[in-house]
Write a structure and sequence with these properties.
Distance between the termini: 96 Å
CATH architecture of the largest domain: Distorted Sandwich
CATH class of the largest domain: Mainly Beta
CATH superfamily of the largest domain: Neurotransmitter-gated ion-channel ligand-binding domain
CATH topology of the largest domain: Acetylcholine Binding Protein, Chain: A
Structural class: alpha+beta
Order of helices and strands: HHEEEEEEEEEEHHHHHHH
Helix content: 40-55%
Length: 409
């Protein structure tokens, strides 16, 4: 009885001297024994392994003029702290503890091609998670603009390769080894962009300064969504080019040939000024589509010249030099016409009929036949121009698309 009373009197004193450590206390005690500036040296091996993963959330845009890619996402960096662990079943199933980044060592990776904040990953306002097995998971969340070399030669069927270049800054390869995660780039939370779609990804790893520092490259392959540009740029240009060819099917005597020709030229000029806002303004690479547009503009200007020449032929005098040259060129058909005319002027015909038809009527008939023959020559010249410009349109258009196809191979 006396022993029981003695234990009851000593129990509060013993309980005051006993403390129950929580997982947060274990982590705080571990971190207090290590300098945040020193990387956690593993006991089993001398090199710390850090896994790197990138989760893409959204592509906000690609500025072709400044060659900048703006993205939103987060890097996930994982490593293990040896000597720190606890049994979660003994601590109310607490499996991880949040810790502020300023209280512990963080990987010294710097985004070398960043356009803002000199490539510093993440921010100190988001805590770091430490698991019950000592695994540290750091989520470096940020909205970032990175440089990206843009090649718009195949616009609007172009593909761009943009990357994030992470460079080891303070520690070297003998201290910390950075490796890619099993899935280096994740698109689970990715939201589609209206202009660009992600076609794939790639990763690279190389060393600097004779292997002392690592450089990790996580890249995206972006493809331009071409439907909008086909409907608003490529298709209208082809329609205007086909409409331009219809000028050579308008008869010169109708008086509408030049009005249609000039109307098509003005429509294309107005459309060309509006489409320039769609074309990327990059001087490093010239878009083949821009070259194609200017070639079509030159062809339409030449169409005006050809139409003026056809109208000049239509109203040319019988003794003009151009008319005489073209008549000699088509002399075969002219001989046929003159032979038919000679039959009507045969001297063996009845003298009574010659008396009825005066000689001036014969000359008038000859003049009408020559004018009809000249009208046919003008139509042939018009058809030749149609064939020439049709060939130029087909060659230029097929050459543009073939060049695009060959660049994608």
């Amino acid at each position: 009885m006396e022993n029981v009373l003695l234990w009851l009197l000593m129990f509060p004193t013993v309980m005051c001297n006993v403390t129950f450590l929580s997982p947060r206390d274990l982590v705080s005690e571990y971190l207090s024994q290590h300098n945040p500036l020193d990387y956690p040296v593993p006991i089993s091996k001398s090199i710390l392994e850090v896994s790197v993963n990138f989760n893409l959330l959204h592509i906000e845009g690609l500025d072709e003029s400044n060659q900048l890619l703006t993205t939103t996402g987060w890097f996930v960096l994982t490593w293990t702290l040896e000597g720190l662990s606890w049994d979660e079943t003994k601590y109310q199933n607490i499996s991880k503890v949040p810790v502020m980044p300023k209280d512990m060592w963080l990987p010294d990776l710097v985004m070398f091609n960043a356009n803002d904040n000199y490539g510093r990953l993440g921010g100190e306002h988001l805590p770091t998670s430490i698991g019950n097995d000592g695994t540290v998971v750091w989520y470096a969340v940020n909205r970032r603009s990175t440089s990206c070399t843009v090649d718009v030669t195949s616009f609007p069927f172009d593909k761009q390769r943009c990357s994030f270049q992470l460079v080891q800054w303070i520690t070297d390869t003998s201290e910390v080894n950075y490796t890619f995660h099993n899935v280096p780039i994740s698109f689970i939370s990715h939201k589609e962009n209206g202009e660009w779609e992600v076609l794939g990804s790639f990763v690279e790893k190389y060393y600097l300064n004779e292997g002392m520092y690592q450089t990790l490259v996580l890249g995206l392959i972006l493809g331009r969504r071409r439907t909008y540009y086909i409907l608003t740029a490529v298709l209208p240009v082809c329609i205007l080019s086909c409409l331009n060819l219809m000028v050579f099917h308008v008869p010169p005597e109708s008086g509408e040939k030049m009005s249609l020709c000039v109307s098509v030229l003005l429509a294309y000029a107005v459309y060309l000024t509006s489409i320039n806002s769609v074309l990327p303004s990059v001087s490093d690479h010239v878009a083949l589509f821009s070259v194609y547009l200017h070639c079509m503009f030159v062809f339409k200007a030449l169409t005006v010249v050809a139409s003026v020449f056809v109208l000049h032929l239509h109203s040319a005098l019988p003794k003009s030099t151009v008319r005489e040259l073209l008549t000699k060129y088509f002399s075969g058909r002219l001989k046929k016409v003159t032979s038919e005319t000679s039959l009507s002027d045969d001297p063996h015909e009845d003298t009574r009929e010659n008396d009825v038809k005066p000689r001036n009527n014969v000359r008038h008939i000859k003049h009408l036949l020559h004018e009809e023959h000249w009208a046919e020559i003008v139509k042939k010249v018009d058809f030749i121009f149609f064939c020439v410009f049709l060939l130029l349109f087909v060659l230029s258009t097929s050459g543009f698309f073939c060049a695009i196809v060959f660049r994608h191979q």
